[in-house]
Specification:
With 244 residues, the protein is of the alpha+beta class. It has helices spanning 4-14, 18-34, 41-46, 59-72, 158-169, and strands spanning 87-90, 97-104, 115-120, 131-132, 135-136, 145-148, 153-155, 175-178, 186-196, 200-207, 218-219, 223-224, 233-236, 241-243.
Length: 244
């Protein structure tokens, strides 16, 4: 049976400090350069200075730790869809809304992929103050911090939500704007809403001024759906509407 002192020493040995991780990363980097991109763990272990913290570790501990670090730093592709400052909401509870304050990894707890820290608009029962396993990753009022994975949130854009609502309610005669797939913004009057060529719903516009992209109020040169001057007709999807 191990004594409390022995257990305490073992516990401390199991926990890697940030300094040890930095020392290990430096040793690995130097070894890769010396060996043209190949790791030599015997060489790495032999080069450890007695003046470093990592010298207390066994070679097996060092190798295991390095592979955990590698796994820990695997990028989370879905997290690339988010940026600091994005307003988001929980997918499981769309009333929980906040602003992203942190995207990255934790030094105190190794996990695959990124964690995302959110400062919530309102206090949450599981909220914190921006600390993750005793590591302060951002600062906020207690109860307003929450850490999630990228697959647990979605962008919450009030303007986009409002626009989606307006897009679903447009009717003949409404004035709308669209880019027509260009860098310019075109305005026009809705002249047609419905299925075209038996395939999909399209919005037919009579543009305020001619657009070079479209020349008439036909769809795929098959059928005329409304009357307008030459070059003033255009068909778009609801998703292409930029303003109502």
């Amino acid at each position: 049976r191990k004594s409390p002192k022995t257990l305490l020493i073992m516990s401390r040995m199991q926990h890697w400090t940030q300094q040890e991780d930095t020392e290990l990363a430096t040793l690995v980097s130097q070894n890769l350069k010396q060996n043209n991109g190949n790791l030599d763990w015997d060489q790495i272990y032999a080069s450890i200075s007695i003046h470093t913290q990592i010298q207390r570790r066994s070679k097996n501990d060092i190798m295991t730790r390095w592979w955990k670090i590698i796994q820990h730093h695997i990028e989370d592709p879905q997290s690339l869809n988010f940026s600091i400052g994005n307003q988001v909401r929980l997918i499981s509870d769309k009333s929980t809304i906040g602003t992203i304050k942190y995207i990255g990894h934790s030094q105190s707890k190794l996990i695959d992929g990124h964690i995302i820290g959110i400062e919530l608009d309102q206090s949450h029962p599981k909220g914190n103050n921006g600390s993750f396993h005793n590591e302060q990753l951002f600062t906020c009022q207690h109860g307003h911090g929450l850490f999630v994975r990228s697959n647990e949130i979605e962008i919450y854009n009030t303007q986009e939500i409002k626009l989606k609502r307006l897009r679903s309610r447009i009717k003949i005669g409404d004035k709308i704007c669209t880019t027509l797939g260009t860098s310019n913004n075109y305005s026009g009057i809705v002249k047609y809403i419905g299925i075209v060529t038996g395939k999909e719903e399209m919005i037919g516009l009579e543009l305020d001024w001619p657009a070079p992209v479209h020349s008439c109020a036909t769809y795929a040169d098959v059928h005329k759906y409304f009357d307008t001057k030459q070059g003033h007709g255009a068909f778009i999807h609801r998703r292409d509407i930029t303003e109502v």
